[in-house]
């Protein structure tokens, strides 16, 4: 299922945010020159995702301290994500990918109508991509279901480990 190799430049994407703006990854990358942790999640209806996103919110200070911007993406409708973000007081970037633009370009598993088992209808599954300030892939993990994803604690360890052991260009 792996589409990218470590060190590959990830594709850019432009998606709507829950705050009513349009988010362009390449523009954001150029402006901030930071690392990004891109987290694909199933949707606001998923209790495991809700817990994970709340944990990420609690750890937002850690990621900011490491110069890592959090970006979350779901194939769920924008209005539902907006309500969810407001109810949970989530302050990181949350994007709606109803058109499956980013899901397809990142080769994130999509649980569609052709899936072998029923699971809350069609939706993208969890996936994680850590990229450096140049948009090069440092870490990736894709799931085909809701379980087995890295915890926020593990993601924090991954960031620290890679920063400590990163080879210079």
UniProtKB/TrEMBL annotation:
Domain Thioredoxin: 4-164
Keyword Manganese: no
GO molecular function annotations of the record: antioxidant activity; oxidoreductase activity
Keywords: Disulfide bond, Oxidoreductase
Residues at the catalytic site: 49
Designated name of the protein: Peroxiredoxin
Pfam families attached to this UniProt entry: AhpC-TSA
Keyword Nucleotidyltransferase tagged: no
Classification via PROSITE patterns: THIOREDOXIN_2 (PS51352)
Signal peptide range in chain numbering: none
PANTHER family: THIOL:DISULFIDE INTERCHANGE PROTEIN DSBE, THIOREDOXIN-LIKE PROTEIN HI_1115
InterPro entries: AhpC/TSA (IPR000866), Peroxiredoxin_AhpC-typ (IPR024706), Thioredoxin-like_sf (IPR036249), Thioredoxin_domain (IPR013766), Thioredoxin_ResA/DsbE_sf (IPR050553)
């Amino acid at each position: 299922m792996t589409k990218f190799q470590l060190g590959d430049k990830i594709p850019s994407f432009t998606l709507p945010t829950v705050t009513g703006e349009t988010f362009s990854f390449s523009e954001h990358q150029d402006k901030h020159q930071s690392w990004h942790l891109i987290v694909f999640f199933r949707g606001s209806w998923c209790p495991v995702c809700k817990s994970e996103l709340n944990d990420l919110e609690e750890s937002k200070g850690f990621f900011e301290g490491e110069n890592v911007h959090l970006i979350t993406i779901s194939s769920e409708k924008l209005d539902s994500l907006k309500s969810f973000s407001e109810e949970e007081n989530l302050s990181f970037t949350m994007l709606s990918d109803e058109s499956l633009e980013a899901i397809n370009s990142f080769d994130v598993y999509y649980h569609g109508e052709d899936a072998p088992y029923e699971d809350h209808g069609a939706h993208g599954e969890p996936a994680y991509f850590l990229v450096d300030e140049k948009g090069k892939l440092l870490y990736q993990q894709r799931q085909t279901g809701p379980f087995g994803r890295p915890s926020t604690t593990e993601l924090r360890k991954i960031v620290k480990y890679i920063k400590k052991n990163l080879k210079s260009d």
